[in-house]
Structure formats: C-alpha cells, structure tokens
Amino acid sequence: MAKKKVSVVSVEDRLKALYQLQTIDSQVDKIRIVRGELPVEIEDLEDLVVGLQKRLEKLNSELDEINNDISSKKNAILDAEALVKKYEKQLKNIKNNREFSSLTKELEYKGLEIQLNEKHISELQAKVLHKKEVINELKGEISDREGELSVKNKELAEIVKETEKEEKLLLKKSDKAQAIIEERLLSAYTRIRTKVKNGLAVVSIDRDACGGCFNKIPPQRQLDIQMHKKVIVCEHCGRIIVDANSLVA
Q1: Rounded to two decimals, what is the model's pTM?
Q2: β-strand 240-242 against 202-206: which pairing, if any?
Q3: Whole-angstrom distance, CA of residue 53 vs CA of residue 88
Q4: Among 67, 54, 56, 28, which Cα is nearest to 175's?
Q5: Of 45, 181, 200, 220, which one has the greatest count of Cβ atoms within 10 A?
Q6: In whole numbers, what is the pLDDT of the chain averaged over residues?
Q7: By three-state DSSP, how is residue 182 classified?
Q8: Are 11 and 229 in contact (CB under 8 A)?
Q9: Confidence bin at 193 (pLDDT 50/70/90)
C-alpha cells in the first residue's frame, strides 16, 4: 500500500473516504453473509472428520493389539500341548512314584494353562467382534461426513465463484479509500467495526439521531457534524458520525 499523504488531505476528505470505506465494507459484508455459515460448517466438519479418523486409528491399533494377544496365547497353547505330549510319553517310562507324581502335576498344570488360554482367547475373540462392529460403524460415519463435506465444499465453491469478481473489485476500492485515511483514524475505524454486531463503524445522522444506536443528537452537535471540520463520535455507542447528505452532495 502506498504511503498515505495525510498532510494534504482535509478532514472532510478523510471523512468522505471513511464513509465510502464503510459503504464498501458493508457491501463486502453482505457478500460474505450470502455465503452464510458454510465456511464455519465446513471447518467444523473437517475437525469432526479428523477427530473420527484419529479415533479409527486408535481402534485399529487396539484391534491389532488384541489380535497379537490372541496369537501369543495360541502359541502358548501350542507350547503347552507339546509339553503335554512330551510328559505323556515320559509317563510310559516312569521308574518311581516321585517321578510319576511330578509329571502328573506338570500335566495337570499344563492342562489348566491350556484351558485358561482358551478361555482368554474366547474373550478376546468376542472383543475382536465388538471392536470390528464399532470400526465398521465409525467407517460409515466417516464416509457420511466426508460426503457431506464434499457437498458443502461444492456449494461454497459455487457461491465464491459467483461473488469473487465483485468482492475483488470492492476490495480494490477499499484499498483506494484507505490510502487517504490516516493510520490512527483507520485503526479506530477497524477497532469499532470489530466491536459492533452489524460492522457499522461510520454512520450518518438519521432523523436527528445516531444511525447506529438511534440516540438523539443535540442540535449544536448535529451542526458540528455537518461542518465536517473534525471527527465526531457518538457519545453513546462510540461510532463515527457523519452527515452523509452533505458528504455526497
């Protein structure tokens, strides 16, 4: 942006540029209102999809852990069964009661170990089934949300395409108006716009009242506003007040 030549611009010209800037910015606001809540809805949907995908990753990781646990217990059963065969073979060659008792206890222990692992496997397999159901439901939800997101992105793209040319033209006019407004006044304008709901930082006198908050303006203050010799703000709402009729005359 070019350096503002504030020293050669009168207060009236600055106020005129400020009023023009407000008019332009209000038009831009209307264009963006046409887009509605779509950008916010799209952002919310994108955040939701990211959150769902993270949850899916976590569920898949948990499923992998369960399947690894099942494999580990199946291997433990195979090891235990191999030892059972070994002990049963040794029983055929037992020479004394102590060896018989020892092998019998080992066989009993391994049998219990196999039963316990089989029970755990059954429990884990039930968890796998439940986890897969949750994962499938989540995948369906992600697919639905992604489809919804695609539709909204297309809607927004169409609206942006329709209004983009007009908005760019208005923004160029906005830059031109800003170029002759001193930095301090422009900052005040921007600050006020962010604080008021309708974005109106500059308003005109309307039926002897502030065009922003509609509080009455004393006659002498109205005269001062109409003179455009200084920047005057509303005592009630803080908006900059101008007399639009005399500015555009």
Answers
A1: 0.58
A2: parallel
A3: 52
A4: 28
A5: 181
A6: 90
A7: coil
A8: yes
A9: very high
Distance CA 42, CA 137 (A): 22
Measured CA to CA, the distance from residue 38 to residue 83 in angstroms comes to: 67
Residue 203: strand pairing partners: 241
DSSP-derived 3-state class of residue 179: coil
In the predicted structure, residue 105 carries a pLDDT above the cut 80: yes
Written as six digits, the tokens of 235 are 């005592």
Judge whether 182 and 4 are in contact, CB under 8 Å: yes
- Structure token pair of residue 119: 């029970």
CA dist., res. 230 & res. 211, Å (int): 18
* Two structure tokens written together for 201: 């930082």
Question: Do 105 and 30 form a contact (C-beta atoms < 8 A)?
Answer: no
Q: How far apart are CA 217 and CA 240, in angstroms?
A: 13
What is residue 3's predicted lDDT score, i.e. its pLDDT?
46
CA distance 35 to 38: 6
Listed range (103-117, 134-148, 151-165) with the worst mean pLDDT = 151-165
Using CA atoms, how far apart are residues 142 and 136, in angstroms rounded to an integer?
10
Strands 232-233, 202-206: pairing is unpaired
- Kindly give the interhelix angle for 11-34 and 183-195, rounded to the nearest 10 degrees: 40
Q: What is the pLDDT of residues 56-65, one digit of tens each?
A: 999 999 999 9
